[in-house]
Amino acid sequence: MPITTIQARASYSAAQEVALIEAVQAALVEGLQIPAHDRHVMLVAHAPHRFIVPAHLAQPERFTVVSIDAFAGRSVQTKRKLYQAMAARLAPLGIAGDHLVVTLRDIPLENWGLQGGQAACDMDLGFAVNV
Question: pLDDT tens digits for 101-120?
């Protein structure tokens, strides 16, 4: 159940925003092996003056940060697969690999409160975390 926030510097149409969210969701499913129905992805579009980026970028308006809060337990190989899937799925949308930063915060299951106040470590999540 990752909680994912996309922060973008570009102005996108509604259709482009949906495509961006869906691309990130698909990368999460592919990389972290979460169920397709596990959808918690948000997009925040910043005005350019509120989001400074490295000066060397060819298309600074395309700089994108994807931050993921996820259950701890995934292997380094799984994380690598996630990062590769994220880059591959965002490239067709005009976000080059050098314009993308993905951060993944591993949070222990006992630090997630879900479904009416239960700790995630006390629940059947319906999918494997240790992949």
Answer: 999 999 999 999 988 898 98
Q: Which domains does the chain have, with CATH numbers?
A: 3-122 (3.30.429.10)
Nearest to 52 by CA among 7, 97, 5, 12: 7
Cβ atoms of 7 and 64 closer than 8 Å: yes
Residues 40/76, Cβ–Cβ less than 8 Å: no
Judged by DSSP in three states, 114 sits in strand
The full 3-state SS of 27-93, as one line of letters, equals HHHHHHCCCCCCCCEEEEECCHHHCCCCCCCCCHHHCEEEEEEEECCCCHHHHHHHHHHHHHHHHHH
Q: For residues 102-113, b (16+ Cβ closer than 10 Å) or e, as one string?
A: bebeeeebeebe
State pLDDT tens for residues 16-28.
999 999 999 999 9
The residues, ordered by sequence, that sit 6+ positions from 103 with a Cβ below 8 Å of its Cβ are 65, 66, 67, 68
Both tokens of 18, joined, read: 């949906």
